[in-house]
Request: fold
Amino acid sequence: MDIKQSIYESTLYIHHMYDEPITVADIAAKVYLSSSYFSFMFRTFTGYTVKNYLNRYRLYCAALDLRDSNKQLVEIAYIHGFSSQQAFTRSFSQMYGLAPAQFRLQRPFISSFPPENMWTKWRKPSMELMQCFENVRFMHKKAFCVVGMEVDIHYNSDDGTSPIGGLWEAWNGEKIAETIPDQISQGIIYGITHTETADSKAKYFVGVEVSTLDNLPIGLVGRKFESSEFAIFDTTLELIFTGGFWRTFYSKWLPTSGYAMHEEPYRKAYAAFNKYPAIEVYSRDYKDEQSTMQVYAPVAKKQQCN
Reply:
């Protein structure tokens, strides 16, 4: 599957259906992706959450209508997908700094939305970014257990991943690693996003690899993941935060690698517990966002995925 093309097609669907009460699940279904995975990839490629993109597009179309027509404000509100004139006025004022009526009188310049360079600005990655893909290694890792802490995140909210920062602060501040027995590699810390749910939520885990879950400390979480082939990349957290690493991974490296992401989930009720999560690996020498760390991406040869 070409993820970039799927996300691009989802924006076209939004442009066509923006005036209807569409949901994230509706849009994700059109490109055959789970809501959580779609929300994550949409934000990675566009820089916007799905709901934020949809709202911005509605407001931009409404702004053009205010500028170019004599329609009443209440009519503009409803034909552009808002539930009421009050909701439209509130959102419009927050976005453009003017109430709709003032905007119509002043007719200020507004930038187009989506930005014209949204699909091209990341096509010329820096040499630093491309270096992440110059020395890819592969490793078969047996099934493994981890113990640590985890937190809920929400891909489709503006601050959806902010709890991750608090989790790391607690992990480091309380020196949790020192309390965990049966560790396999002292000083190696994992960051793992491992669970997706139907409401676009996931769980982010910070922890260490252990030989057994029999001695799980009170208050901590134990998880077990299946064996997999992993592609190993050297990168930085800075490149992950900007979205550059994963954009390049999905749009450039993966399509030409001969591999596909190994993403078979456990299915239970409304949750999908990933058997093969991507892993952020931090060594004892890791210091800050510009320090080198590794990403283990679970992959399989394409013929094995058929």
Notes: The longest helix spans residues 50-68.
